[in-house]
Amino acid sequence: MQKRSSSNSPYIDSTRKGARGLAIVVLAIAAMGVSAAAGAWVQSRMGHHERPSLSAEQEQVIARQLSRDSAFVRENVNQLAARVGDLRAQVIAMDGLSRRVAKAAGVSYTDPEVQASLDEDSAPAMDDIRGGAARWSAEGLGRELDTLARQLSDQKDWLGMLDLVLTKRAGAETGLPNFTPVDYPYISSSFGWRRNPVTGRHTLHEGLDFAAPKGTPIHAASGGVVTEARYVSGYGKLVEITHGNGLVTRYAHASSINVKLGDLIEKGQMIARVGSTGRSTGPHLHFEVRMAGHPLDPKLFLPAPSEALVAHAPGKEGGQSAAAPANASDGKESVHLLAKASEPEINTRPRLR
Fold it and tell me: Is residue 352 included in any domain, yes or no?
């Protein structure tokens, strides 16, 4: 009986083929697993090295941007610090100017807020501000700018008030009768008590007498309105000008009158000519200044003539008195007389004599 070889068994062959197929599948799966694991490991290793690289790049970009921003901020803070320094210099300069103007005008200058801001203990030095980008923040410099701007505004308001005071004072001085009414400054008779050359009685001479040739132009000592332009007993041909605030000037003994009642007159305008009308002993101008009806010495207002002009003045040889005194003023110290303007006027019209 013939034995069958085991190697020739179909069953065994089939089993072997199945085992080989299974082994191939297992190996394939194992290979795939290894491949996947290797890929994951490689990816993990690559990611581990790439992430720090991307982060460093981002940090470099951010660092560059921060550097640019920091430079921009420093530049602007430096510019702001320079502006603060310049503005503080202007405050100091304006304070000095205000003091000089106030002193010249005789006005008391007090600005505590400005003085406090200029105090070394309460304000930074200009050098510190101009070079203080490291010490001063933009916000702090902004506040300093606001403070200085407010102080400049306050000083502007104060200077505006001073300007108003000076304007009013200038207006008052402009209205003063400080223009010499004739070109011949020789005074033949001063203001005050004297023996009247016509009556011989001791009376108050209420003005100044200027000796001058007949026909010499007579000029208004200040601007105003003509309130008299006629012949008045004693005064002769008279021009009276009202300047406001109770102030009146009179020009008497004229030979002719060149204005009429109600005319508006400018300072220095010719209004008449020297004569000897009325109660007079010779050609001259009788000039009066009255405040609220009270006679004032015109020398308080008129400027002092030069000695050379007085020396060559016509009529000096035959006059009674010397030239105008050296203490004649330019009228500035007489501004206070205008304060009497509120008093009721007393006999502002010429006295008929």
Answer: no
